[in-house]
Amino acid sequence: MILLDNVSKYYKGDKTPALDEVNLHIQPREFVFLVGESGAGKSTLIKMLTREEKPSYGDIMVGGIDYKYMKKKHIPHLRRRIGVVFQDFKLLPNRTVYENVAFALEIVGVSNSEIKRTVPKVLDLVGLSDKGHKFPGDLSGGERQRVAIARSMARQPKILIADEPTGNLDPENSWGIIRLLEEINNFGTTILVTTHDAEVVNQLKKRVVTLSHGKIIGDQKSGGHYDLDGSRTRIAKRSLGGPAPAAAQQPAQPIVVPKDPVAEAPKEEPAEKEAPKASKTKSGSAVIEQMKKAKASDEAKPVAKRRKFIH
Ligand SMILES: Nc1ncnc2c1ncn2[C@@H]1O[C@H](COP(=O)(O)OP(=O)(O)OP(=O)(O)O)[C@@H](O)[C@H]1O
Ligand SMILES: [Mg+2]
To answer: Which of 28, 72, 91, 126 has its CA 20 to 30 A from that of 230?
Structure first.
């Protein structure tokens, strides 16, 4: 779950806010496009969620973590729990594809044997099983973005945030990446993606949140269109400063940043989705099944013993 409650952001020295009293509630397992003109505040909103920037006003909660109570030392921990993908991939150029993904696990102390098991599966999921030995410079743009997604998914985050993941790609590769995000969403990961690609947004008919000058001017809950002036959008009351969502009205327990943040209570989870529409590779399905099983067995455990899933 992602919740922004009346969030405003003024960058240093600016009189006008980059985000202006933004209220946004994203449920677990939603797929949301965030659109808006250049400078509308999309990346700023993403940076609020990754804690790259702090809000000037307002509250943010992600996966049960109330950012107000988050200490600096918890920030790297948070970033490991949310997968983030950027337009420019941010891969390590001197490491192979395999090593780029493995590195994401190494830095959080995953054992070598688990890394050896996980990396091939994640590369398989993104369709790059045969490219593990290559360096990023030897890959196409679409393949590089797949590596970035594999890296961000290796730790099985329950939220994947992508800031213009198709911004540097041609239409064919863009569609490949978007289909991959859909597939990842189909096995339960919440996806928030910013884009300028009207065709993709209009064809997918997902929830579309439109920002303009730092304000949410449209929130089409489903069947959304790319509509930057908001004229065709049904504007959600909440997004225009209406009553705050219930969760915001009942602030959560004081510090919600445990050593091991866990998923929201299972009761918040919607029922299992139907079989995904996007076609999957056989091996991709196997990884998905494995993730589902891990999650199911995790939820059966006492909270303190769960693995590190968040929504
Ligand atoms: N680090 C920063 N310091 C100061 N101002 C910033 C900073 N980052 C963004 N801004 C300003 O905040 C506003 C919103 O920028 P942001 O990058 O969030 O827009 P965006 O919607 O992501 O645009 P684009 O589609 O071009 O990526 C802009 O006016 C921008 O100049
Ligand atoms: Mg941006």
So the answer is: 28
Q: Is residue 266 a contact partner of residue 310, using CB atoms and an 8 Å limit?
A: no
Q: How far is the CA of 42 from the centre of ligand 2 (A)?
A: 5
CATH architecture of 2-305: 3-Layer(aba) Sandwich (3.40)
Q: Which residues contact 276 (CB under 8 A, 6 or more apart)?
A: 182, 183, 186, 187
Domain residue spans of the chain? 2-305
Ligand 1 nearest atom to the CA of residue 214, by list position = 14
- Average pLDDT for 218-235: 81
From 195, 187, 192, select the one nearest 159 (Cα to Cα).
Answer: 192
Query: Of the given ranges (80-89, 138-147, 159-168, 211-220), which has the lowest mean pLDDT?
Result: 80-89
Q: For residues 242 and 94, which has the higher predicted lDDT (pLDDT)?
A: 94
Ligand nearest to the CA of 8: 1
